[in-house]
């Protein structure tokens, strides 16, 4: 596939600049970086009764910076394929300065990796550095040339492993320098809720994705079948937690995760009703963020109580 730069179509003046900047920076999305570190640390606390707060806070800040790099470079790479032509809230379109965004993104990455290096240095162990570098590699492969695996519809799988098993293991390991079955099982649940966000972000973008040759899961499945799949994906989060409690792998308090049923139900209903109306379904990504947030917080609480 040859991808040529496509010129940006300017923003309608009526959309306020402040709103566009908030949509470009997407503050709620950063809970996605914090949650794997919180979950790995919560399971470590449940099993050892100790937390190293210095490592925890350094890891959280590093994760936020690495996710900032991922999002800034996403706007840079997407500006090269033309897929963001109709996206006024792309940072490249807002600033008109691709190289500025590229270098701010790279500075975030270097600072984030420096935080991870500091933890590796304190522990005299390179394990978490290797894992986080692997996550960054997957993040690059999602959107950067020559891979652009997101364009092949592989983003959700990369997202599952990066924010689930890999990041949660790294956080657990940063506290304990070992692994655990409970933290692995918990990471599967977080991987699913994080990938759900990416899955939902594609419902309103089918036309632009098709035009740019991006075969997202929603392009491949169609919006109707995508909407039909959602209750199964959300349901798997509750079914897995119930099964892990029944098997004695999770404390009974983790059933608190059922408190996140309201955003899960809201998400499934909203997408079922609006899957083929881009303007209406476009906010479903943020309902998915809310489900990810509440299920993650309640799962963490279930481990620390
Ligand atoms: C940038 C991401 C999604 C945006 O995708 P898309 O191009 O469809 O969106 P726009 O319409 O807004 O342009 C997220 C991609 C996630 C990626 C598959 C994996 C990233 C891995 C992270 C770098 C790992 C972070 C680890 C941290 C928690 C320690
Ligand atoms: O802008 C987006 O659509 C997303 C940004 C982001 O950082 C992220 C992280 C993890 C899962 C999904 C997403 C997005 O969808």
Description:
- This protein is mainly α and 305 residues long.
- The chain has one domain (27-304): Farnesyl Diphosphate Synthase (Orthogonal Bundle).
- It is 72% helix and 0% strand.
- The chain contains 14 helices and no strands.
- The protein has helices at residues 17-25, 31-48, 53-81, 91-95, 98-123, 127-143, 155-176, 181-200, 206-211, 217-221, 223-246, 261-274, 278-281, 284-304.
- Helix 3 (53-81) packs antiparallel against helix 5 (98-123), helix 8 packs antiparallel against helix 11 (223-246) and helix 8 runs antiparallel to helix 14 (284-304).
- This is 2-carboxy-1,4-naphthoquinone phytyltransferase.
Question: Would you spell out the secondary-structure blueprint of this structure?
Answer:
Layout: H1 17-25, H2 31-48, H3 53-81, H4 91-95, H5 98-123, H6 127-143, H7 155-176, H8 181-200, H9 206-211, H10 217-221, H11 223-246, H12 261-274, H13 278-281, H14 284-304
Helix pairs in contact: 2-3, 2-7, 2-8, 2-14, 3-5, 3-6, 5-6, 6-7, 7-8, 8-11, 8-14, 11-12, 12-14
Bound molecules: ligand LFCQNMSN and the ligand O=C(O)C1=CC(=O)c2ccccc2C1=O.
């Amino acid at each position: 596939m040859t991808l040529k730069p496509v010129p940006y179509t300017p923003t309608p003046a009526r959309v306020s600049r402040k709103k566009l900047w908030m949509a470009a920076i997407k503050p709620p999305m950063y809970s996605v970086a914090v949650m794997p570190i919180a979950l790995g640390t919560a399971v470590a606390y449940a099993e050892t009764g100790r937390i190293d707060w210095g490592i925890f806070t350094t890891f959280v800040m590093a994760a936020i910076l690495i996710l900032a790099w991922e999002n800034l470079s996403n706007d840079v790479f997407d500006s090269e394929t033309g897929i963001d032509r109709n996206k006024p809230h792309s940072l490249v379109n807002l600033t008109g300065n691709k190289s500025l965004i590229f270098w701010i993104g790279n500075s975030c990455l270097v600072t984030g990796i420096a935080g991870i290096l500091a933890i590796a240095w304190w522990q005299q162990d390179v394990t978490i550095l290797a894992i986080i570098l692997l996550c960054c590699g997957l993040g690059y492969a999602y959107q950067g040339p020559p891979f652009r695996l997101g364009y092949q519809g592989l983003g959700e799988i990369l997202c599952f492993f990066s924010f689930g098993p890999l990041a949660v293991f790294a956080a657990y390991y940063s506290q304990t320098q070992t692994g655990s079955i409970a933290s692995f099982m918990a990471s599967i649940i977080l991987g699913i809720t994080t990938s759900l966000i990416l899955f939902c972000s594609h419902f309103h973008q089918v036309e632009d994705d098709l035009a740019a040759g991006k075969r997202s899961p929603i392009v491949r499945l169609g919006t109707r079948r995508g909407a039909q799949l959602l209750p199964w994906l959300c349901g798997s989060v509750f079914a897995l937690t119930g099964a892990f409690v029944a098997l004695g792998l999770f404390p009974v308090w983790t059933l608190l995760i059922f408190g996140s049923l309201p955003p899960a139900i809201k998400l499934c209903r909203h997408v079922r009703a609006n899957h083929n109306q881009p303007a209406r379904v476009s906010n479903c990504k943020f309902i998915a963020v809310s489900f990810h947030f509440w299920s993650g917080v309640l799962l963490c609480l279930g481990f620390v109580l």
